[in-house]
Each structure stands twice: as structure tokens, then as C-alpha cells.
Amino acid sequence: MIVDELGRLVYNTPKLYPKQLEFLKGSDKVTYNGYGGARGGGKSFCLRPKAIQLALKYPGINILFVRRTLRELEENHLPYFERELGGVCRYDSKKYLFKFPNGSRLRFGYVNTENDMETYQGQSIDAIFIDEATHFTEKMFMKFTECLRLSDTIKPALEKGLVFKPRMYLTANPGGVGHYWFKRLFIDKEYRGDEKAEDYRFVQSLVFDNEFILKNDPKYVERLQALPEKERQAMLYGDWDSFEGQFFEEFDEELHTFDPENVCIDGETGVFEIRNNWRIYRSRDYGLDMLAALWCARDENGTFWVYREYGKSNMPVSASGEKLNNLTSPEEVIYSDIAPPDMWNRNQQTGRSAADILYRECGQRLLKANNDREMGWLMVKELMRINPATGRPYLQISRNCTQLIKCLRIIQHDEKNPNDCAKIPHDITHFPDALRYLCSSYTYAPSGIVMPGEVRKRTFADYALDLGDYEDKEDVESNGYIEMGDLDDDWFSWSINWKRNWSFNSRKGRSKFTGKLIKGFKDWPKRFFRD
To answer: Distance between CA 76 and CA 70 in Å, rounded?
Structure first.
């Protein structure tokens, strides 16, 4: 940048490539402007001149330029701006702030944690530049949107008749903690609440659009081509469904999903139908923020056919139970109705749990899922492998289950524990959790519902009634819970959790009792063991 003979600042904009020009030219009409996709597309490069252009055109404008860490700012951006603006603009190194002669301000910021967003609380920022936006959480992004409004300092520009609309510029590659929210808004264009399609635009860029790299560093393209398949798809071609950090890398829609209108089962092709000898499982993850439920049928080959899903937020417990009952036809006999352990937590005021409400008001006898996260994810991955009996994976998901499929594609590894899924963003964890509960619990015994043609064996609930510990069967079923097993002549294995805090495990005469003594407790061994 130079000062001409009339004292005006003159900025010679560097050469921009067609995709970069497309991104910048239409940005004054849209609030949120996204750019990126593949590596080497010139994302950061095109942001810098735009920030300077805005500062020169609109006197008094307040601009914020952010990266996730200070180090990234110091290495990628500050040297460029110091070189371009040095000697013309005043630079405050303590505040990372450039002050232009016309009153415009260009400030640099970073956000290590979500708590750092408090730094921007209550500020008015006319234009925000977020480089590598997928490194920011959705909460961080939303906090920045709260700051995006006209500032008092831009009044000189408006008094000159200039029109300025507050706007945001974002660049990104697939992957990172912000992958989901960025993809939802800019790629999938799935909007919620007051979000409007006309406020968002995205320009996809590839390394092949960057003439400088193609001419001066062609080996860079070869290095991208040498990456593993999923990383190559993301970094070379900007594929937002393939990226580093995916938890279910083995998930393949071609292998793990089926068309319910045209599916081949045991050599017969046609509409998906559940056969009489299949067992049906229903699994849910429940919270007021989201009810996520899955219906699954297990066939004689061990294949799990996830054939229905339902998801809705802000549903009271009883309403969620009624809805699942309505979605389940009388012909669908639920062999096991699986739910997360926290549904047995009792309300301090009423003393009732969600499991109790669902039993009493909806007739649902729930099976408490195993909540070992690492083991559960391992079971999901196990079912994604090929079943030798069919040549297809054990897990088959109907293509109508769009929410589950989408979440499996984009959920990522936990940053601190590679054996676990990330819990953020939270809204994409519900359906995978419901699948995890299913996969880690399907080997359990049924939840008490008798399949056609089966004879129900006596359980601890029946013996509890014999001993007189409970008033009636309803008291047993609402206050106690059978987690595994039924009585058997030669072998039985039990793991039982009751409100009265005791458990029993046995194999053929060897027993272990733990917890508080209850009425009739010492009479149980002789009633249970035949030899």
C-alpha cells in the first residue's frame, strides 16, 4: 500500500483467480459468505485483500479477523498485513490492531476455548473474517453472529451515502470440530428456525483452481493424491462426506444401507418385509433436547436390519412413549425395548423415573442398555464388518433412516479419547447413541415380552412375588428391573438391579449376593437351586 500525491491510500490488489473473484464479488449482498473445500484453493490469500479493501472503502468500519490460535495468526496472516500496511497504518502490537488514517480498524483475534468468546461479548463488528471456520465450534460461530451488527464508528461512511450491510467471510476445509455446522449451513443447506437460504452462499474451490501452485509447486498435487482414500477425497476434491477424524471410517453407504423398496434377502428381491422368525428390537436415546428412536429386525443370519427411525425434540416422556407405540404396528412384537440407563433416574419431587412413567402410562417394559461407550462403539464397528453368511455387512440401514445415516457419516473421534465419539456437536450424537445401545444390548434376554410360540420362563420378578417382597406384579416391574437372563434347568446367569440395591449372580449352585438384605432374602438360595 502506498500514499499517492493527493495523500490518498492506494492499494494494489494482488491477482486473484476466477474462483476467488467469484467469492468476493457477490459478497456484499449476502450475510454469510463461505469459501473453500479442498486444500490449496487459496482460501486465506483471498481474505486478506478483501479486509483491506473494506477498510479503505468504508471510513470507520470495524473489522475482526480471527483464527483459532494466536500462533496461526502470527504465522499465516500478521506478517502479510504488517508488510502491506506498515508505514501507512498505525499498528498496536498489544491489541493486534491496525488503525487506518480514515478511522477504520482492523483487529485480529483468536479463540482457544469457548470461554474466550466472552472477550467479544457486547461488541459491534461490521465485518468478521473467520479463517479455517471448521476449527471453531458452533457455539463460537453463534457468538460471533451476535456481534455482527453496524458499529457507531462506521457512521462517517454512511453519512457519505455509502451503504454497508454487516457480513461475515468464512473459509474452511472438510473436517474439524466445526465440520457439522459448516456443512449443514453451506453444503447441505439445512436451515433451522429463522435461518434463511438467501443469507448463505458457498463457493467451492480446488487446488486445480490455484494457478500459482500448479505452476510453481506441482508436486503438492501429487502429495495430495498420495493421501489415504478418505483424506484424498476431502483434501484434493473437497468431499464434505470424507474427512480426517471420522469415527466410522468403515461406514460405506453402498454396503451398509439398503433400498426398502428393492432389497435382496436370501436371494429374493422385493419390498423389505419382516419375517415371522425375526426378532424386533426398538432402541432409543431420550432427552428433552431430542428423542431418537430406531427399529431393528434381526434375521436368522445375524443381520441387523434397521428399518425405521424417528426423531423429535421437546417431547415429554409420556408423549414420546405414545408416539413410539403409534409408530409400532400390532404385528411388530418388540422382543427387546432398549433405553439409556439415565431413564431410571428418579425425579426428586415425584420419585418417579422415565422408565416408570413409560411402563405405567404406555405399557413399555424397557431394557436398561449397557452404557460402556467404548465397548458400545466397538460393537457397532463389529456389526459393520462383512457377514460371511450373506456377503454383506451385519448392519443394514434403510435409506429412509436419513438422520442416522447422516450422523454416522459426520460424527468424529473425541479429541482426547480415540476410542470414543466426540460429544460435540451434541445434536448429532443421539441417533448414533441409540444404535450403540442396540448393538451393545442385543445379546441380552428379552425385556419380558413373549414372542409368538414361546413359553415365558419364570424370572426373579415371579420369585419376588412368591416371597412377598412386593405388593403386586406392577410394584415389581416399576420398582425393579431385570437386566439379563431367565431361570434355566442347567445354567443361568443373572445381573439384576433393583430399587432395593441388591444383585445376584450364579452358575449351577455357586452364588454371590451383594447389597442390602430384603425381606425373605435368606430363603432365596434354597428356592433357586435344585441341587
So the answer is: 10
Counting Cβ atoms within 10 Å, is residue 517 exposed (0-12), middle (13-18) or buried (19+)? exposed
What are the distances in angstroms from CA 476 to CA 303, 352, 462, 479?
34, 14, 9, 5
Cβ proximity of 296 and 305 under 8 Å:
yes
- CA Rg value for the chain: 30
For 2-237, the fitting CATH number among 3.40.630.30, 3.10.20.880, 3.30.70.2190, 3.40.50.300 is 3.40.50.300
What grid cell was written down for 130? Answer: 473467520
Domain boundaries, the chain: 2-237, 253-441, 460-528
- Here the cell at position 42 is 487459496
Q: What dihedral angle (degrees, nearest 10) is formed by the CA atoms of 122, 128, 134, 135?
A: -60
Q: Which amino acid makes up residue 423? A: K
Calpha distance 94→77 (Å, rounded)? 16
3-state SS class at 306: strand
Closest listed residue to residue 470, CA positions, set 481, 457, 461: 461
Query: What are 182-210's pLDDT values in tens digits?
Result: 999 999 898 988 999 999 999 999 989 88
**Could you give phi then psi for residue 84, rounded to 5 degrees?**
-75, -35
Q: How confident is the model at residue 52 (pLDDT cuts 50, 70, 90)?
A: very high
Q: Whole-angstrom Cα distance, residue 284 to residue 434?
A: 5
pLDDT of residue 447: 36
Is the CATH number of domain 253-441 1.10.357.140? Answer: no
Residue with cell 432409543: 284
Q: Is the pLDDT of residue 370 over 90?
A: no
CA 206-211-214 angle, to 5 degrees, is 80
Q: Cα–Cα distance between 417 and 423 in angstroms, integer?
A: 11
What's the pLDDT score for residue 174? 87
The span from the CA of 278 to the CA of 297, in Å, is 6
pLDDT the model gives residue 476? 53
